[in-house]
Description:
The protein has 618 residues and is mainly beta. It is 9% helix and 35% strand. The chain contains six helices and 52 strands. It starts with a helix and ends in a 9-residue tail after the last strand.
Amino acid sequence: MRPMKSTLALLLLSALAASCSASAREYHVSVLGDDAHDGSASGMLRTISAAASRAQPGDTITVHEGVYRERVNPPRGGQSDTERIVYQAAPGEKVTITGSEVVQGWANVQEDVWKVTLPNSFFGKFNPYADLIHGDWFGANGRQHHTGAVYVKGDWLMEAAKLDNVLKPPGGAALWFGQVDERNTTIWARFKGVDPNAEPVEINVRQTVFYPDKSGVNYLTVRGFNLCHAATPWAPPTAEQMGLIGTHWSKGWDIENNVISYSKCSGVALGKYGDEWDNRAESAEGYVGTIHRALDHGWNEQTIGHHLVHNNHIAHCEQAGVVGSLGCSFSTVVGNTIHDIHAHRLFSGAEMAGIKFHGAIDVVISGNHIYRAVLGIWLDWMAQGARVTGNLMHDNDRDVFFEVDHGPFLVDNNLFLSAQTQLIVSQGGAFAHNLIAGGLHVIPFDGRMTPLHKAHATELAGLHDNPCGDVRYYNNLFVRRGDLSPYDHARLPVWMAGNVFLKGAKPSIQEAAPLVKPECDPGVQLEEKPDGFYLQLVLDNAWTTGQTRQLVTTALLDRASIPDLPFENRDGTPLRLDTDYFGHERNADNPFPGPFELSVAGAQSLKVWPKAAGPTYR
């Protein structure tokens, strides 16, 4: 009887799956469609929003070539990872969803300065030229900043502090300035040799491009779009975090293969919901209160996070490429190109980076290319179980910042090529098999009381201050500015072994037998070629014949002392760093130092980006 019942159950499940598959619909959207149509291939809809209002779990929305000037506000999500609602660009077709509108009728004021006056009704309920950027940890630098922007041929002009900056001197930088009265909005712009009535000029009119008004819109896929031009607000960790595209306190989004660009603040937002405490909690104690409220609001592994941000091109965002307070937990950010973040630098604040996460619990940041950012990756508070692995980072002001984290967190197989590599005021970290070409700044002590959690969970296990130490450096390759001497007098124990120090890089007295070669210049240089980025360097077999190194594992790393937790994979299995930057197998008996496991030493020219496709984690 047992086998018969099992067979019957399987048949019923198969029938149910077939029924669900048969009921799934594909809605088509075209700029030539009509929202009165049914969305079939022969009766396409005109707007993505019309398709979103119809789509149910398991359905797909396929958008065909064209420019869609709308904000997509998905009213519902899928039921599970296998029963999603998919929003996708039609294969091989360029689909742009934008928060801007084309503006014509510019009048010449003088030389290359023009102006246009629009009725405030043009903007509806939201006018970016009356909307000031503000919030916790935001620095205005003595002037006003608006969420509006002006674009010529897709690229933006900088906002001027006052009208005189646009008018004088003639021939200066490309700038714009806006002024709003009771009836009209007037924009002046210096276009630098461009006739704005002959070239496409656009202005921001929408706060976001793809973002649900309500939280809990789960299991969406957003794939293959060009998403651009959003008047996004400042996104501190204490407020609702809205991006050009954002998940709004939901679970299980896949944001993949998109071009995401020109957000006044953040590009992708994986962060928190809003409440009455938004922008009213600017302190360590205030953020602890935010965390307690988030726990009451469903911050847990079953409800929040688990997003996949994969293979996107994210650029020209003045706060962050990817931001996430708490809602980023259990997510994966993999294979993205992120660049030109906070490039204008008109305002300041504490939230700017290529990737800026608070509460990066069990987050994997893997195989990304981050450059020309004020900070590459900033893991701020509660990076417990986080792993930063296999990333290429260069031409940033600083590559990584770990702020008041208690660990365990792991940083391995990365290429840190900027002049400044690391700022750390955290414990419980492990750095293994990285190439570190920049300076390291270690803060001896931070008295803020910040959270630690139970293993692989958001549940609080206590608060602790942040003394220097409880870090591990194994098998790294330091070049030029790399300097571990700040750990000479760390308050907590440190573990260091198998590191190589070249061309002026300095070890710590905490390492018993470092390999120091001050005269050796490996000639590290990154070169961009038509097919990608190549790293030129010289590697020496003597680095392994003269020393024997241990494979980095959970057993070697032991436990992060403050949370008393082991270094392990986010599924609880033991760590074993047996592959390198490229996914090649390491020599388990004596792994090569740095991110590459090479059998042939000498001069190398290694294509480090784009990398061959690797695993995509969920």
